[in-house]
Structure formats: structure tokens, C-alpha cells
Design a protein that fits this description.
The chain contains 3 helices and 5 strands, in the order ββββαααβ. The chain is α+β, with helices and mostly antiparallel strands.
């Protein structure tokens, strides 16, 4: 399941979502399309079925939409904005604590 990291705060409005990374002191502004993905992750815990919800009414290819959604989510995970709770957390060992 995907969830925002502990150091992330977010708010959604009619024009998109603002995401604040407290650790880095940076804002991430999501447009309405990216905001749909963010809402799916934060409300449902994942993006299952989202590609069909977007693609079918607009006549687009669900596979193409799905790959774009996955790429965007992967970017957020790599940036530390989202955390995949199904993956074990990496433990960083300090060199002085052997």
C-alpha cells in the first residue's frame, strides 16, 4: 500500500494538490491530472483501476495511461514523498554502531 511519508503534508483544492516536504523544505504542486493520482494513493492506498477510470471516458489506451501513472508514482517513491508499506524499510546502519 502506498502512503505519504511522515514528513509530507498535503492539501487538495479545485486546481490541484499542494504537497509540502518538511524534510527538504520544498513544495510540490500537482496539476489536476496528477492530483487524481495523488488522491487515489492517499484515499485508496493505490492506483488500481485508475487507468481505466481515466482512459475509458476519454477514449485513450488504458495500458498507456497505466504506464504513465506507474512512472509518476515511481518518481514520488524515489523522491521519498510516497512510501510503499508493502516493502520492508531499509535500515541505515551507522558506522559507529557495529
Amino acid at each position: 500500500m502506498l502512503t505519504p511519508a511522515d514528513h509530507i503534508h498535503h492539501a487538495t483544492g479545485p486546481r490541484g494538490t499542494a504537497v509540502l516536504d518538511l524534510r527538504r523544505g520544498k513544495w510540490l504542486m500537482l496539476d489536476p491530472d496528477a492530483s487524481k493520482i495523488w488522491q487515489a494513493v492517499t484515499v485508496r492506498g493505490g492506483t488500481a483501476g485508475l487507468a481505466d477510470e481515466i482512459a475509458v471516458p476519454t477514449g485513450q489506451d488504458p495500458q498507456a495511461i497505466s504506464s504513465r501513472i506507474n512512472a509518476f508514482v515511481d518518481e514520488l517513491v524515489v523522491a521519498g514523498v510516497l512510501v510503499d508499506t508493502d516493502r520492508p524499510r531499509r535500515v541505515h546502519r551507522r558506522w559507529w554502531r557495529r
